[in-house]
């Protein structure tokens, strides 16, 4: 088994992730969580690692604010798309592109970072815990770790309310793998325990798509997408909605560097 490489799905991935309402929700929640935390870090110009960042949606946004970003991805096509978008930017962007598995990143080569982002990556990894723990060696003491992962319990609940009972009885194991369906979803409590073991204090936790994925097929005639995003933001940090998010975002701050 190998970790997922999106080379063959790069354009589809880019369109499906950030070219849809789902992507708008994802971007809104992540930015709402990240923006105030970044302003509290020193120095003002931060070193940021976007680990498995694809074409660098957030990398470009952060670099536009004046930060120095290293964007690493295993997909050569994703990085080619990032290079094209960076070249077309009206603002000069300080982004270093690294074609590599995130497991291969070392302190010796890249030093340490004020912030590490790892969004929608862990659920594609065969051994997410070990990979993420290794990644945290590149995080400075008191640095921020932004982890967004696919929530296995939300996958189960969505399947239940969709009537896919056979799928649930198989413990969410699909008969045929679908291109953009994560292969290794995670339980919230497991990830929370990892953060405790890593001495990582969770500053912020949010559900991503706590409403959108449960919407009925027949919506009111006055349904408004912008209002949906506002409701997502309003309920994303409240229980039980948070735990039903298709993804969950933990923003943690380190007290020590894990060994």
Description:
Helices cover 37% and strands 20% of the residues. The longest helix has 19 residues. The radius of gyration is 18 Å and the shape is globular. InterPro entries: Cmo5U_methylTrfase, Methyltransf_11, SAM-dependent_MTases_sf. One of its GO terms (biological process) is methylation. Its EC number is 2.1.1.-.
Task: List key phrases describing it.
259 residues, alpha/beta, 7-stranded mixed β-sheet, 10 helices, 37% helix, Cmo5U_methylTrfase
What number is the mean pLDDT?
92
| Approximate strand percentage | 15-25%
Helicity level: 25-40%
Low-pLDDT residue spans: none
- Provide the structure class: alpha/beta
Coarse shape? globular
> Main β-sheet: number of strands, strand sense, barrel status?
7 strands, mixed
Order of helices and strands: HHEHEHEHEHEHHHEHE
Taking Cα atoms only, what radius of gyration do you get, to the nearest Å?
A: 18 Å
DSSP summary, beta strand count: 7
Strand order of the largest sheet: 3-2-1-4-5-7-6
Quaternary form: single chain
Q: How many distinct helices?
A: 10
* Distance, first to last CA: 26 Å
Family: Belongs to the class I-like SAM-binding methyltransferase superfamily. CmoM family.
Catalytic activity: 5-carboxymethoxyuridine(34) in tRNA + S-adenosyl-L-methionine = 5-methoxycarbonylmethoxyuridine(34) in tRNA + S-adenosyl-L-homocysteine
EC number: 2.1.1.-
Function: Catalyzes the methylation of 5-carboxymethoxyuridine (cmo5U) to form 5-methoxycarbonylmethoxyuridine (mcmo5U) at position 34 in tRNAs.
């Amino acid at each position: 088994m190998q970790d997922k490489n999106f080379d063959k799905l790069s354009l589809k991935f880019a369109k499906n992730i950030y070219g849809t309402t789902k992507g708008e929700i994802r971007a809104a929640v992540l930015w709402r969580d990240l923006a105030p935390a970044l302003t509290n870090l020193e120095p003002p110009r931060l070193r940021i690692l976007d680990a498995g960042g694809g074409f660098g949606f957030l990398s470009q946004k952060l670099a536009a604010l004046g930060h120095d970003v290293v964007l690493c991805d295993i997909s050569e096509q994703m990085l080619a798309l990032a290079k094209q978008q960076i070249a077309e930017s009206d603002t000069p962007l300080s982004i270093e592109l690294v074609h590599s598995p995130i497991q291969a990143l070392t302190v010796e080569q890249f030093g340490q970072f004020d912030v590490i982002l790892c969004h929608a990556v862990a659920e594609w990894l065969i051994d997410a815990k070990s990979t993420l723990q290794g990644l945290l060696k590149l995080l400075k003491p008191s640095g921020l770790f932004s982890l967004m992962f696919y929530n296995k319990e939300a996958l189960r609940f969505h399947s239940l309310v969709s009537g896919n009972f056979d799928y649930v009885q198989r413990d969410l194991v699909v008969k045929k793998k679908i291109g953009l369906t994560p292969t290794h979803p995670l339980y919230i409590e497991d990830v929370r325990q990892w953060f405790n073991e890593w001495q990582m204090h969770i500053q912020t936790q949010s559900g991503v798509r706590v409403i959108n994925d449960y919407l009925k097929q027949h919506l009111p005639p006055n349904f408004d997408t912008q209002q949906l995003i506002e409701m997502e933001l309003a309920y994303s940090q409240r229980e039980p909605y948070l735990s039903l998010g298709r993804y969950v975002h933990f923003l943690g701050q380190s007290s020590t560097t894990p060994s």
